[in-house]
Specification:
With 333 residues, the chain is mostly helical. The protein is built from 18 helices and no strands. Among the domains are: 147 residues, no CATH class; 67 residues, no CATH class. Helix 2 runs antiparallel to helix 3, helix 6 packs antiparallel against helix 7 and helix 8 runs parallel beside helix 10. The longest helix is centred in the N-terminal third of the chain and has 19 residues. Pfam families: PPR, TPR_24.
C-alpha cells in the first residue's frame, strides 16, 4: 500500500504561479476544442460528461481541464460518469498522474475539490486504492481541501474486500494528512466485524470511537445491532434499538429485521411479536414493514396464531397489508 510522503510546505508564489500557468494551459485548450456538434445554448451535465470522456479517451487532458472548468461556470456539475474514460487497463491508468496535474490547475474551490473527489471515487470503483491514495496525497500536499470524505471511497473498497489491516492503515494515513478520522470512517470497519459476528473486534472499534470523542450515529447502531443479533445477543440488540429510538435516531427496517431474524433463528416467536409491538406507533411506514414482514415469516413457519396477533394490530392501526397478507387475514379473522 502507498504511504504519504512527508507533506511539503508550499512557497508563497506557488498559487500565483499555478494560476498563471493554468490560465495559459486552458486558454490553449479552449482555442483547440471542437465538439462533434455546435456547443448547445443550454448544455447539460450529460453533455459535458460525453465531451470530457471523449477527450479523455483521446488522451487530450488539456481539453478535459478546460471542460471541467467551463461546466462548473455553466452550472453543470460533475457526476459519477465524468471520469468513465478511466478504465482498468495499462494505457488508461498511465493517464492518472498527468490527470492529477490537470486537476491541480483547475479553478480553485469547489471546481477543483469536486473533480478530485470524483476521481478518487472512480479509482476506487476500479479497485485502484493505491492510485486513489496518490490522489489524496497530492491534495494534502498542495492544500486542495483534503478531508475525511476523500478517504471514504477507499475505506469502503478495502472493507468490502475485507482488507482490514489496510483499512486500519488508511486511518493512520488520515491522521498523517492532518485529517481526524470521523465516525463514518470507523463505521466502515465496524460493519464488517459485526457482519462476521466478531464482537471482540467490534468492541475495539467502539472503544476507538469513544476514545476520540466521537458520537455514534445511526449506522454505528445499525452495525452493532446486526452484530449482536448474529451472535445471539438479542437482549443487547433490543437495548440498542431502544437507545436509537430514545435518542431520536432514524431506525431503518433492516435494523428491526436483523433482530427479528435473530429471534426466529432461535425459535423465539412470542418474543419477536412482543418486540415489534413494543416499538410500534412511532413511524407508520416502519410499522407496516416490521409487523407485516414478521407476520409473513410466522405464516411461513406455520405460526398462524402469532401472525394473527400482528395482523389484528395492523387492522386496528389501519396499516396497509400486502395482498397475500390481507387474504390470509380475511380468511382467519
Amino acid at each position: 500500500m502507498s504511504i504519504f510522503r512527508q507533506l511539503h510546505t508550499k512557497s508563497l508564489n506557488t498559487q500565483s504561479t499555478r494560476k498563471v500557468l493554468a490560465s495559459r494551459f486552458f486558454a490553449a485548450a479552449a482555442q483547440n476544442f471542437t465538439a462533434d456538434e455546435p456547443f448547445p445554448d443550454e448544455p447539460t451535465s450529460a453533455y459535458y460528461d460525453e465531451q470530457v470522456n471523449k477527450a479523455g479517451r483521446n488522451g487530450d487532458l488539456e481539453t478535459v481541464g478546460y471542460l471541467l472548468n467551463k461546466r462548473y461556470r455553466d452550472g453543470c456539475f460533475n457526476t459519477v460518469n465524468t471520469f468513465k474514460f478511466l478504465t482498468d487497463n495499462e494505457s488508461s491508468l498511465a493517464l492518472i498522474d498527468p490527470l492529477i496535474q490537470t486537476l491541480s490547475r483547475l479553478d480553485k474551490g469547489y471546481t477543483r475539490k469536486q473533480a478530485f473527489d470524483l476521481l478518487i471515487a472512480r479509482l476506487c470503483k476500479l479497485e485502484r486504492t493505491d492510485e486513489a491514495l496518490r490522489v489524496i496525497d497530492t491534495m494534502a500536499k498542495e492544500g486542495f481541501g483534503v478531508n475525511a470524505a476523500c478517504f471514504q471511497p477507499v475505506l469502503n473498497t478495502l472493507t468490502r474486500k475485507k482488507k482490514m489491516e489496510e483499512a486500519w492503515r488508511v486511518l493512520d494515513l488520515m491522521r498523517h494528512a492532518g485529517v481526524s478520522p470521523d465516525v463514518t470512517a470507523y463505521n466502515y470497519l465496524l460493519k464488517v466485524f459485526c457482519f462476521e459476528g466478531n464482537l471482540t473486534q467490534a468492541v475495539a472499534v467502539v472503544k476507538k470511537i469513544e476514545a476520540e470523542g466521537l458520537v455514534a450515529d445511526g449506522r454505528t447502531f445499525d452495525a452493532l445491532i446486526l452484530g449482536a443479533s448474529k451472535a445471539g445477543k438479542l437482549a443487547g440488540a433490543m437495548v440498542l434499538v431502544r437507545r436509537m429510538m430514545d435518542g431520536g435516531l432514524h431506525v431503518q427496517y433492516s435494523t428491526i429485521a436483523n433482530v427479528i431474524n435473530g429471534m426466529l433463528r432461535l425459535g423465539y416467536f412470542d418474543q419477536a411479536v412482543r418486540f415489534v409491538m413494543a416499538f410500534k406507533g412511532r413511524d407508520r411506514k416502519l410499522d407496516e414493514e416490521s409487523l407485516g414482514m414478521l407476520a409473513s415469516k410466522l405464516i411461513n413457519l406455520n405460526k398462524k396464531d402469532e401472525a394473527m396477533v400482528l395482523l389484528n394490530e395492523m387492522s386496528k392501526m389501519r396499516l396497509i397489508m400486502g395482498t397475500k397478507l390481507f387474504e390470509f387475514y380475511k380468511s382467519n379473522a
